[in-house]
Amino acid sequence: MELHYQIAGMFKPQIHLIGSNTIAAGIKLYGDGVPLEGTSDFKKPRRNKALPLWVVVDSTGKLEGVLHTCRQFEQCRDVIVLVSQTTPRRYLQYLDERQYDYHCVGTDSVNLRRSLDLLSKKYHVKTILTDAGMILGNLLLNQGLVDEISLLVHPVIVGKTSYDMFQQIEKKHDLTLVKCERLQKQYVWLLYKIKKKEPPHTK
User: Fold this and answer.
1) The sheet that has 53-57: what strands, in order across it?
2) Domain topology for 2-144
3) What are the extents of the domains in the chain?
4) pTM for this entry
């Protein structure tokens, strides 16, 4: 994880875009249980503005009661939540009580294209890094919202229990290798740029 976040920092993102499932899985996998909320969790933290904001896609309120685990992370300036018109009122009240900024972007689910446009304009963002699992990552790729893919290759053959990150991709994407770097003697970092198809010329 240390190497993972070291690579993430190289992109100098203003925002980390994260799915609620990824956060829930991370809490379960790397945490020692959910800590109790303290007084400081009910107000915005005062941290270095150079730190990235964490923007969480959570229209169902999955992270109610555990969102403070993100806010407590020292490398997170603060948490912003993207919700939809179907998000439970109770979850919105939970966010209000703790001074989380949130934006309703979408009807039944979060509209990712509109969300990226909003984040760019409201927070003057140029670089968004998504530390995503399969669901959010595949949605972004399918909607043509990804410029680069960063992969960290580990010296392990997982076998039948492997997790196919790209199984829900709807069409082929051609990539251009930008970087191939060996890290800590045994890991390989690959950075690819997605080839964008030129729109057809009209006369």
Assistant:
1) 101-104, 79-83, 53-57, 15-19, 128-130
2) Dihydrofolate Reductase, subunit A (3.40.430)
3) 2-144
4) 0.88
